[in-house]
Amino acid sequence: MTSVQCLLSEAARLWPEAPALIDAGASHSLSFRALDERVQALCDRLAWPGLNQAIDPHAAQNRLVLLECHTRVSDLVVILALIRAGWICVPTSFRHTDRQLQTLVRTLRPALLVSERPLAVGCRLCHPVALEQGPALGRAANQHTFDADQPVTGFFTSGSNGTPKLALHSYSAHRASAAASRQRLPLRPGDRNLMSLPLFHIGGLAPVFRNLLAGSTMVFGGRADDASFLHQQQISHLSFVSAQLRALIAQKPQGLRIPYALVGGGPIDPALLESAQRAGIEGWQSYGLTEMSSQVATGSPAGYWQVLPGNELRLDADGAILVRGATSFLGYWRNGRLDRSCFLPSGWFATKDLGTWHDAVLSIHGRLDNLFISGGENIQPEEIELELLRHPAVERVLVCSVADVKFGRRPIALVELHSGSRVSSSELNRWLAANLPRFKLPQQWWQLPNRPEFTGTGLKINRTAVQTWVDQQAHRLTPLA
User: Fold this and answer.
1) 113 near 91, Cβ under 8 Å?
2) I need a surface site. Which of 243, 405, 454, 462 has the fewest CB within 10 A?
3) Does residue 296 sit in the same domain as residue 425?
């Protein structure tokens, strides 16, 4: 069976004294050797008797560890140690309520929950500090090579109904993703990569593997939209969603130079990338998904796209994107086992993203499951949102639909304006009418409510949560002035 090497072990051998990470908040750093030793020390506390036996990826029930995760150095150490000790690490958001966390435990039935909360849960509970300071159980429980089909991580991803699905990944897929990304966005010793996305998302953990492979430095403790921090720490690589990039540009940074800023999370306005370039930020568009270990294709600042080496992308007859390749996940964890029924023949995975590929340009139009029909016409909410985000007064926007006797469904817009900005719904409709047909213009305009469940555990607005709330609580919306 094919096996792959542990990237941290390799990095500690190749660049033992080079800085693996900088914790800007705590003003200290760790070399690759020191990080490897700290991970190994924790790994020795995670020994389990069956580690040296043959591991069946279809019988991983007792190897799931649910980790309540921030984006801190200590969280990264736990993740790397769990992987090396043979567990399947499932990072989840610290923003979950107690009830949500307890529901996850009941659903997954993990062997261990690592959390700072004193919860009554149906599995062993361990505080992360106690985990790292507990007694060593021996040095047998560690892996420096991993079987190609051995699951090592699990990440939650939501389907069209908003129900979280747990996608399991092999170490081989993580390593392949890191190697392929590096071919498109060069990364080398001396570069500094801000850990700007949450470690409980695939887009937050993927840079860890990239930096371990390249010998570059991970920087913790700063924000992607903090211009002074980026300049002070000499950040060369980071990842954004559009809202973060807009916030950074709004600061009018002086002397900033970021050659590799990966921008993803949805359709990107080309004008935003042009503004970023004028501010010294080279924006590289990213199309990716949890099921493909992060990136699938990357668009250069000049607008030319390439599928990452080792992956394939094609469109079906309806314009939906299909993907497969070396970075593919193993399948979903369902009912205590690995379920691979999500794959089409020949290993293709249907993303449910709609797109076009023409003259080396990949355009993502939105999710197939977001599309709705109004009076017989197809409406893709993301198309309307992208046009609205080009308006200088609009900070964030989400287009939903409401029931209509005559048309079935009609679009409405929930808008958040930039601080100090004022704009009327009639002006925004005129803005849209310049580029969109009349049937796509929102029939109602409301302020986007500031509710925690709308952002959920990530940086993007949770469309399913907003649509459900609108369906049930539309009378509580505040009109856009």
Assistant:
1) no
2) 405
3) no
* 211 and 228 co-located in one domain: yes
Look at residue 155 and give its three-state secondary structure: strand
- Domain residues for the domain of 354 are 1-368
Residue 352 lies in a domain: yes
pLDDT in tens, 388-397: 998 989 988 9
Number of continuous H segments (helices) and E segments (strands) in the chain: 14, 28
Note whether residue 481 is domain-resident: no
Q: How far is 381 from 370, CA to CA, in rounded Å?
A: 7
CATH code for the domain in which residue 250 is found: 3.40.50.12780
How many Å apart are CA 196 and CA 258, to the nearest integer? 14
Token pair of 387 as six digits: 């046009």
What distance in Å separates the CA atoms of residue 102 and residue 93, rounded to the nearest whole number? 13
How far apart are alpha carbons 73 and 129 in whole angstroms?
A: 13
Instruction: Judge if 109 and 232 occupy the same domain.
Output: yes
| Phi and psi angles of residue 190, each rounded to the nearest 5 degrees, phi first | 100, -25
SS3 472: helix
Residues 6 or more apart in contact with residue 434 via CB below 8 angstroms: none
Model confidence pLDDT, tens digit, residues 394-414:
988 999 999 888 889 999 999
Residues 283 and 411 in one domain: no
